[in-house]
Amino acid sequence: MYAAIIVLTVMGAGLGLGLGYAARVFRVEADPIVERIAAKLPGSQCGQCGYPGCAPAAEAIAKGEAAVTCCPPGGLVLAEQLAEIMGVELDRSAVRDADPGIAWVEESICIGCVKCLRVCPTDAIVGAPKMIHAVLPEACSGCTKCIDICPTEALRMRPIEVTLRTWRWHRPEGETRPEAAHV
Amino acid sequence: MFRLFGIRGGVHPEEHKHPTASRPIETLPLPERLCVPLAQHIGAPAEAVVKIGQRVLRGQLIGSGQGRVSAPVHAPASGKVVAVDDLPAPHPSGLPVLSVVIEPDGAQDDADHPVPSDPLAMAPEAIADFVSRAGIVGLGGAAFPSAVKLNLGLSGGAHTLIINGGECEPYLTCDDRLMRERAEAVIDGVRIMRHASGAEVALIGIEDNKPSAIEAMRQAAAGDDAVQVVAVPTRYPMGSEKQMVQALTGREIPAGKLSAQLGVVLHNVGTAYAVHRALRQGRPLVSRIVTVGGGAVREPRNFEVPIGTPLKALFDACGGFAETPDRVLMGGPMMGQWMPSLEVPVVKGTSGVIALTAAEVRKHPVQPCIRCSRCVEACPVGLLPLEMASRIRKSDYDAAGKLGLTDCIACGSCSWVCPSNIPLVHFFNFAKGELVARRAAEERTSGLRELAEKRQVRLEKEARIKAEKAAQRKRERQARAEAKAAAEREAKKQAREEQKQEEEA
Ligand code: SF4
Ligand code: SF4
Fold first, then answer.
1. What is the CATH number of the domain that holds A107?
2. Chain B contact for A161, CB < 8 A?
3. What is this structure's pTM?
4. Predicted complex ipTM exceeds 0.90
């Protein structure tokens, strides 16, 4: 009987210690999903997703309330990354056309009112009161906030220009592309 | 006898070389206009240094190289600059490229470029500098600035210089003719390059379907142990960098590495000839030999052509088209690029222009993959084309990347053997672009995020400064009010005292 007690005690202690050790060594960090999603979002707070900013949108995506395809500036690339974080199957056809373009100023009608300067989430517009403004194309996220606020409709969107450096091969003909959007 | 090493995969497409291989190189009459693009090489485009209306001499600098990986551009003929404008590039997209348009005056006055008395006695760096200033880029098609490669060999301690005379693409014979007719000059260029790259030996690899070229080169190199001519088996894509290095050295360039990391530098025979011309004759790279071929061309042949010549002039000089071509390619039929029009110019990397008839272009309906694995056998890199293509079909480019997509040299062997006519290499070109686009999109997003964060910081700072200023003003107001009240109290007190004194008085 003693033998059995000793064997079982030793086994219990050994396995217990082993499990405890394993729990420490192979510890998996609890996934701060909201943070991981927020880190991928553009952070320009443009509100095109229907949420007041990127942080609330990240929470909604993490809760499953918003689709992983809800962020137009992020496009297909972001949708794929979010789908991976969330572990969901991506419906590529739900990705809205990812290229809203970039803003530019029609100089002949810009009155230099600086309204657009204040709303641009990435400080992409340069200008001073009563001076013609200009958009820095590299810094424009294509959120269209300035388009809505311009009193003279001097701000417009145009597609990002394809050059020899950015040109890419298209998908082979006769092979239908499952998703509509193009990054 | 030199020991050859086996290579993997490869295919044997019909050669179609003899119509042009048997004819000597001819000189093309000067066309009416030359359109010289300022970006003909891999790297930063050159910047125009001439004005409209200016007269230029042949070999005069018209575009200066920008940055470390770039190449200058020189006038291919003497004449007048009539435009500096965006013109269609010799590229499938037909997108514009900034070009200098010259109307030749026929005088062919040369710009003065002094030559060193003995290039082989110069410091290697000085030769590379010379090569760089002559605007020499890889003439095999890739158009990578040659001086950068020479320097890479020198700094990386290269022991072997490989000169690529493979010319494995069907139809093309420009290197073959060059080696047959101007072997001495090529070998001289090879000697200069060997010296410039610091290599001990130069191996010239030539496919064994060009016996006359091998013979001519052997004769020209006779008596020089440091320069060896090696016949390599004829098998497409023998002329690709990876295959040539493997066949001659037995070493495989590891995935994602450069041949320089194996102590090997590789240049094309045409490049060696251009180096000879630059250092012996003071002639920058302003012309090259181009094969005009394909079943649609009446009399195919090789021409020495000034850079900037429109393709139409080349075909016209061959008697025009015997039948309407189905497509016109720049480069060979396996890897060549589809040209948008006949107005686009010959550039430094143009080895040939091929007009193919409808019968020569294989156009069969695409069938489903039967998993015959012929593409796997054909792939010289050892990839699994069928697996990569199936991932790309599903738009899973990352999975294709994990299967080695970026190591694909786009040789087209897989497409060529596929019995189901699947456009495999097109899938790979497309997916490679997609991977690049994705990386760019990710970078852009993270850049924008940073900007948005900076703006947030700025707004907070501005709000804080505003609040501080407001607080300061409030304090000042209070202080002023207090001071005023104190002064009033003081005044009252004084008034009272005065009253008191008056009363007492
Ligand atoms: S050669 Fe074509 S059909 Fe055969 S396995 Fe490859 S892709 Fe499939
Ligand atoms: S194109 Fe790419 S995948 Fe196809 S055979 Fe050539 S290297 Fe292999």
1. 3.30.70.20
2. no
3. 0.81
4. no
